[in-house]
Amino acid sequence: MHIITSRAELAQLVTQWHKENERIGVVPTMGALHNGHLTLVNALDGKVSRRIVTIFVNPIQFNNAEDFRLYPRGVDKDAALLADTGKVDVLYAPNENEMYPQGFSTRVLVSGLDGMLCGGDRPGHFDGVATIVTKLLLQTGADVAAFGEKDYQQLCIIRRLAADLNLPVEILPVPTVREADGLALSSRNRRLTTEQRTQAATLPAALTACLGALRAHQPAPPALAQCRATLEQAGFTVHYLELRAESDLHLTQAATPGTRLFVAASLGDIRLIDNMPV
C-alpha cells in the first residue's frame, strides 16, 4: 500500500491506472478508522481493481472549532489497519494546504437537501461535505465511491451532486455497521466515557422500539414522543427525531416502506446520529 500526500503524485498514478483500464474505487474518510470503514473497503469487492482510501479531517464542514480540534486523529494506526486488509492500493492523506491552497474560495451547495436534519442545526456543514467530496472524487478519478448509510443525509447529498454535476462515478450505499448492542459505529464513539458508552446503547434500542410501534400502526406523533422521552431520560439532548422519506428526505407522518427514522442526540458535547428504515 502506498501512502500519498500530494495531488500531483496521486494524479500521476491515477492517470496510469486509467491508461491500463483499471477501475478505481474510493472510500473517503476523516480517519479514526473502524470496522465500519473496512466494511466500505470490502463493499468494493468485485466492482473495482484498484482501491483508494482518503483521510482528511475537513475543516470547512465543522461549525464548531472545538469539535474540529477534538476530532480523533491517528494516521499511522489507520495506515496499519488498511495495510492489514491487503486490499487497499493507496492511502491518500493530503494536508490542509494541499486541499485548500491560498485563495481557495469555491463551495459546492446542494440546495433542498441541506436545510433539514443535521443541516438545520449545523449551518454550512453540508456545503463543506459537498465541496470536499467533489474534490476527492475528481482527484481520485473514482469509478465507484462507497458511503455508509449511517450518514444517510450525506449519502443523499452526494448522490445528488454526482448526478447534477455529471460526475462519472457510481455512488455505492453500504448498510450501517453496528456494535453488538446496536450502537452505530462512529469515530466519535471513541470520545465516550465508560458511563456515556453505556448510555449510548439506549439510542438504537429506543429507535428499534419506536419502529416496532410504528409497524404496529401506532400513530407517529405518540411513538416519536415516547422515543424522545426515553432518550431524554437516558441523559441525551435530542436535536431532532423525525420520520422522513428516503427518496428526498421530506418530512412525513406516514410510516410506510421507503421512509426512515432519523435522530441526532448528544451526550455531553458528543453528538451521535443514527437512522433506521421503516
TrEMBL record:
Beta-alanine binds at Q61. One of its GO terms (biological process) is pantothenate biosynthetic process. GO terms for molecular function: ATP binding; pantoate-beta-alanine ligase activity. Pathway: Cofactor biosynthesis; (R)-pantothenate biosynthesis; (R)-pantothenate from (R)-pantoate and beta-alanine: step 1/1. Pfam families: Pantoate_ligase. It catalyses: (R)-pantoate + beta-alanine + ATP = (R)-pantothenate + AMP + diphosphate + H(+). ATP binds at residues 30-37, 148-151, 177, 185-188. (R)-pantoate binds at Q61, Q154. Keywords: ATP-binding, Cytoplasm, Ligase, Nucleotide-binding, Pantothenate biosynthesis. Transmembrane segments: none annotated. Gene3D superfamilies: HUPs, Pantoate-beta-alanine ligase, C-terminal domain. Belongs to the pantothenate synthetase family. The reaction proceeds by a bi uni uni bi ping pong mechanism. Catalyzes the condensation of pantoate with beta-alanine in an ATP-dependent reaction via a pantoyl-adenylate intermediate. This is Pantothenate synthetase. It comes from Acetobacter vaccinii.
